[in-house]
Design brief:
heterodimer, A: alpha/beta, six-stranded mixed beta sheet, 6 strands, 43% helix, globular, B: alpha+beta, Helix Hairpins, 4 helices, 4 strands
């Protein structure tokens, strides 16, 4: 299994311009619900459990206001990226203590190898590595702007 | 949620453990900024999940895990995602159940 093009792993229904919650667990729930509605996930409740287990391994906030939670799970049907933004910020135990304003949820089916999944995660982290990239995602006013940036850095 | 949720959880914990125990993957994740501090806690969680799984599934699961790296695979469009054999209609689980065995490869099949 390979990583799909950005256009196939990210669509308009997977962009949440303003996340409703300020804690990681409900935020992940909101994002999993989106992925379920988009048909990329079965057993959403179970996937939330897997994501919570991943958080126990160590918070998936990677600093600079970004979290990239991820799961390789039997509940995931196809690779998907869900992007959420939070103007108020999410308390996510980041290494630099900053609140999280951008969340990129990376989902891989269980059939993906560990290496492919980690590569997919690395691309998502790479998409928000620079201040300019993060600011463009935060300032984007439409899905098209967000999708355009992700296509540049992920595809 | 499936009544076999404990087996699904065990499977996903094993996937996660295999990822973070692979040195190349763990190194890359750390370079990306992730902290991987809870591996022992995850192993304990695995033990707890395994203890809750219906005992009849455990030997099959562990044998397939050891042999193929995964003890449980999904069925998609009647195809085993482990060995890619098309399953006969009769291989589907009884109503209300979600698990059977793949007679071709011996993995446990999850019918979502």
């Amino acid at each position: 299994m390979t990583i799909g093009e950005a256009s196939t792993v990210f669509d308009t229904s997977l962009f949440i311009p303003e996340l409703r919650y300020r804690k990681p667990e409900p935020v992940l729930g909101e994002m999993v619900t989106r992925a379920s509605r988009a048909g990329a996930v079965t057993a959403g409740r179970f996937l939330r459990t897997s994501l919570a287990l991943r958080e126990r391994l160590g918070p998936t906030a990677v600093g600079k206001g970004v979290a990239v939670p991820h799961a390789r799970s039997i509940a995931v049907l196809e690779p998907r990226l869900v992007l959420g933004r939070s103007r108020q910020g999410i308390e996510w135990s980041a290494p630099d203590d900053e609140v999280v304003r951008l969340v990129l949820l990376v989902l891989s089916p269980a059939e993906a190898s560990a290496e492919v999944h980690v590569e997919w995660v690395a691309r998502a982290v790479g998409a928000v590595r620079t201040v300019r990239q993060r600011q463009r995602l935060l300032d984007a006013e439409s899905f098209d702007e967000v999708a355009s940036l992700l296509r540049e850095v992920i595809a | 949620m499936s009544r076999h949720a404990d087996l699904l959880e065990l499977h996903d914990i094993d996937l996660l453990l295999r990822t973070v125990q692979r040195e190349s993957c763990a190194t890359r994740l750390r370079r990306l900024g992730y902290r991987l501090e809870g591996i022992d806690a995850l192993r304990r969680r695995r033990e707890r999940a395994a203890s809750r799984v219906e005992p009849r599934w455990i030997p099959t699961y562990e044998r397939a895990l050891s042999r193929y790296g995964r003890g449980l695979v999904a069925v998609r469009e009647r195809v085993c995602q482990g060995c890619f054999v098309t399953l006969p209609t009769s291989a589907a689980p009884d109503h209300g159940d979600t698990l059977t065995l793949c007679e071709s490869c011996g993995r446990i099949l999850y019918w979502p």
